[in-house]
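Bug #2210: token dump truncated for MATE family efflux transporter?
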Amino acid sequence: MTPTDAGSEETGVRAAAVPAAAAGRPGGAKFLTGSLMRHVAVMTLTSSIGLLALFVVDFVNLFFISRLGDPALTAGIGFASTLLFLNSSLNIGLMITISALAARRIGMGRAETTRALLGEVLLLGIVLSAIIATIFWTFAPQWVDLMGGSGTAKDAAVSYIRIVAPFGPVTVTGMVCSGLLRAYGDARRAMNTTLAMAIGNAVFDPLLIFGLGWGFVGAAWSTVISIMLMAITGVVPILRHYGGFAMPSRESFAANLTDIRKIMVPAVLTNLATPVGGIIAFRLIAVYGEASVASYAVIGRIIPLAFCLLFSLSGSIGPIIGQNYGAGQLDRVRGTIDRAVIFAAGFTLLIWPLLILGVDTIGWLFDLPTGGMDLIHAFAWVVVPLFFFNGLLFIANASFNNLDRASWSTWTNWGRNTLGVLPLAMLGSQMAGAPGVLIGQAVGGVLFGLGAYWLTRYRVNQLRQL
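Reproduced locally. Full output below:
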């Protein structure tokens, strides 16, 4: 079985990129609409399982730490995870890079060039991740100070960062391999990488935290073990089914560097905006005490779990858009984007009442102090329905990255996480305290989500006129 055959068998990628047969027969337009919506749904659902597994890692960590009965430790894991997401921005950016470039080459019939591309992206990722890990380990106390952490919460956050950060190069290996698998449409094996990480965390968290009595430190080492499992699960199918890795040569690297840089730099900068926005919000929340910080940390774990389908939507439609763009099928690019928006709206309407009903359960599950429950209520009633507009931004970013406008993702994401957070969250804080910070962030998401979606439609129309 060739790599392309594997991808087609899993999700029908090849059929999605070459729709002429369907378009030429009676009822073809209806077939295309149904086929495309099904393809978006299948790729999103399978991708969401893997992404959900990745988010479960943080959720499980926070849950078991909350069982230790100290809100300061819950706040500490919130500080640490937000800061470590700065490093995750590099990993996600590199995953987007390999996925976008490889998918386009596959769509153009140049799948044999992806081995060299994988080796080059991976080498870049390991070197950069090692540098970032060194900086994080050295300056962890200063980073936590910047976010407003102090006392036990600060000590816990610093210890967690200094254990997990050095394994950044291992993390980037797993993420890049997952991105290549997704570019081939091999959703099942891409899903398995993050699934392995989640299973590892679910097993080793209780064993190390409670079984061996390592407490908070046990959660950090559990994450390290899970990272290693993810990397192994990503590397093995690349070696077995997709020709392995090609060692970068000077000539090949020079030829590919421009393409890599055009997507990698804006993709990394785009994803870097999210933790920056989180740091700003944490700083504003920290003045209201550890109860509010602990609740905000819980919300930070609930959002990716509750909206995993929206997060995975951008990762799953990226290769579909990239392959159809490479094949010159702009009508299907436009159709993919439209179906993704419908998918996002329907899912948001589904999840909203469930979270309203689950407010008290969330407080009980994480043993949250009474003083922090006002944030949970504001999140469930006000922030959740507005998260649809963040979904628009995710869809737009995936479109920009695959339609030769990756820098637009950078500008819209940074705008959303700076201008869309700081002034509105500060205003909300003055008007309604800690819940106002949440609501201010959500309003910023509405403004930038709508703006990014308009830019997406503009870009597609622009391409159709060429």
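Output looks complete on our side. The chain is about 85% helix and 0% strand. Marking as cannot-reproduce; reopen if the truncation happens again.
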